[in-house]
Design a protein that fits this description.
Helix content is 2%, strand content 48%. It is mostly beta strands.
Length: 179
């Protein structure tokens, strides 16, 4: 079966530490213990089959990977289609080791479990048509404009604290002085 491909590029290279020595490239690759990537970093997801799937990309500098966590204290830009999240001090938790099997989950997010951005500069997310009102009965919205549930919608927010995203439930949380 076809799988999505995650591509990670590091401008100035990476130091990769395995749990055991590499013996022969024809053997299986041991699990990665940690990785230190230097310079400009881009992480992107390339969909295997889904023709209409929206691309996901992350840009930062100097990214560390420690088995099931990706971290950087530097500026971060995340784009998912026309949605943008920008800030600094990033933690991404993975569901498994970066070269391990993520299990039988059919998540569109692959190995991603949770994302936390501790200093937020910008959150601008495209919502489904109708936004927060998409699932309401048109009669509950307004008698003047029942088509409100079909209009394009965006969420633009700022906060003084952390932005969290749970990939399993596709839910976001903003903390401290949300505007």
């Amino acid at each position: 079966t076809a799988q999505d491909m995650w591509i990670v590029s590091a401008e100035d290279g990476a130091i990769v530490h395995f749990e055991e020595p590499l013996k022969n490239f024809s053997d299986s690759i041991p699990k990665i213990e940690r990785v230190q990537m230097k310079g400009e970093i881009e992480v992107s997801k390339q969909a295997a089959i889904e023709a209409g799937e929206v691309p996901w990309r992350l840009w930062t500098r100097d990214l560390s990977i420690d088995k099931t966590q990706l971290t950087t204290r530097n500026e971060v830009l995340i784009e998912w289609g026309t949605s943008v999240i920008q800030g600094r001090d990033l933690l991404i938790r993975l569901r498994s080791d970066i070269l391990g099997n993520a299990g039988s989950s059919s998540s569109v997010w692959g190995p991603l479990d949770e994302l936390e951005l501790y200093q937020v500069q910008k959150v601008d997310i495209v919502l489904p048509p109708g936004g927060l009102w998409a699932d309401l009965d048109p009669k509950q919205l307004t008698t003047k404009n029942p088509a409100l549930a079909q209009l394009p919608a965006r969420l633009q927010a700022k906060c003084g604290g952390r932005f969290s995203f749970d990939f399993k439930s596709s839910s976001a949380t903003l903390q401290n002085g949300v505007q």
